[in-house]
Amino acid sequence: MSAAAAAGLAAPPLWPIRTKLLLCAALGFTLGVVATASLMTSSYATSSAALRGGGGALGLFLPPSATRNAVQDRPPPPAARSQPKQGAVPPARWQPKQEGAVPPVIRRARTSDPSPAAATGMGMPPPPAPPAAGITTSAAATPPPPPPALPGIGGQKPGPATPRVTTAVSGGNGSSSSSIGDDGDDEELMARAAAAPREVPAGTVPRVAFLFLTRWDLPMAPLWEKFFEGHRGLYNVYVHSDPAFNGSEPPETAAFYRRRIPSKEVQWGEISMVEAERRLLAHALVDDRSNARFVLLSESHVPLFDFPTVYSYLVNSTKVYLESYDQPGATGRGRYNRRMSPVVAPWQWRKGSQWFDLDRGLAADVVADRVYFPLFRRFCRRNCYADEHYLPTFLNIRRPSSAGANRSLTWVDWSHGGPHPARFTRMEVTVDFLRWLRDGSTCTYNGRTTSVCFLFARKFLPNSLTRFLRFAPKVMGFG
């Protein structure tokens, strides 16, 4: 074998030219794809920077106005849409009368509202802590705008119904509307009543607030209508009845027209009776600042004198009429709960009738009570009968003994014994009986002895109404 042939056998085989060309093309295509991807990523970043900065490398092709429009057209995130304005003032849940308006109270957040931590997680700043009930903001804060005119004022008809519970309360000179939340929040109502003026403005004619605590309807309403007739401007009427009661509304000219307040169920002998009394006082305090005296009545009450006599007796009195006495035994001291000590000591415990007449200052003290009422609500249960002990004990602690007359203006017959007083039917209502109720007692009024001790009486059954309407003009001087 020659040397050339041997050299040819030892050399590696040569790659075909077609294979080399295919490898070069694949490598070039791969490099092109990588370069294209890198260029597109760099261009996207540059464009985004230009949009955010309003110019940049793309400023020559995209004017600043276009970049602003592009940013403004974007919808805000959900957190930004739901975030309240910094200077916003929440609307008041209850609007008092225009005259002597009471500053609104900001309600505490409900349990379903997002907590500060949850709000922060949603992209919202934590809300400021709400002020305590009855505390107004500082003078540097921007005051809220004056409340709009309430429906019903000046003879106007109320507007369309709203989801809120609305109570129309018409005074002697007109009418107003009082509304609270649809949950009937007593806490907010008490806070507004506690902030109401505690005195009747000078130069204002005082009025008497007649507070009717009823189960259903008012069977003696025709007699009371005769009693109130011709004396508008000197009284206001407020009715607390069972929330399930849906009786027909009396005529617009009636004293009881649109007089029902937002009510809750009341159980006899339970703390709910005291809650209803405080609810009546609170509405009367907020509704009209000229309410000077507050008289609690029931559906079985009847007046024993004409309106001028009752009005003069109340507004000119130097005392409040509420029984408050110490009674030994099971029905008095025996109802005291030792867990009330030391806030209420045993020697401070008192008893009395629930039917009262209070002045404006004491009524405001009652609705503002955050010490004794919670204690009674917690410990005065079952056989305690809070309606016979809360106000007498409260008066004994908060007011000196000289402030109260220690008697009630309502005559009741307890001679039969038992937990309920005697009831009177139609045949028991006679002229002699009514005259004895009017003049058969002796008491002290403003330091002088008088026979006018009881202005009202109970319990009279509905069938006695005809007798009262018959004898009222002859005996009581009205009708």
UniProtKB/TrEMBL annotation:
<feature type="compositionally biased region" description="Low complexity">
    <location>
        <begin position="114"/>
        <end position="123"/>
    </location>
</feature>
<keyword id="KW-0808">Transferase</keyword>
<dbReference type="InterPro" id="IPR003406">
    <property type="entry name" value="Glyco_trans_14"/>
</dbReference>
<keyword id="KW-0472">Membrane</keyword>
<dbReference type="GO" id="GO:0016020">
    <property type="term" value="C:membrane"/>
</dbReference>
<keyword id="KW-0325">Glycoprotein</keyword>
<dbReference type="GO" id="GO:0016757">
    <property type="term" value="F:glycosyltransferase activity"/>
</dbReference>
<dbReference type="Pfam" id="PF02485">
    <property type="entry name" value="Branch"/>
</dbReference>
<keyword id="KW-0328">Glycosyltransferase</keyword>
<feature type="compositionally biased region" description="Low complexity">
    <location>
        <begin position="132"/>
        <end position="141"/>
    </location>
</feature>
<protein>
    <submittedName>
        <fullName>Uncharacterized protein</fullName>
    </submittedName>
</protein>
<feature type="region of interest" description="Disordered">
    <location>
        <begin position="66"/>
        <end position="185"/>
    </location>
</feature>
<dbReference type="InterPro" id="IPR044174">
    <property type="entry name" value="BC10-like"/>
</dbReference>
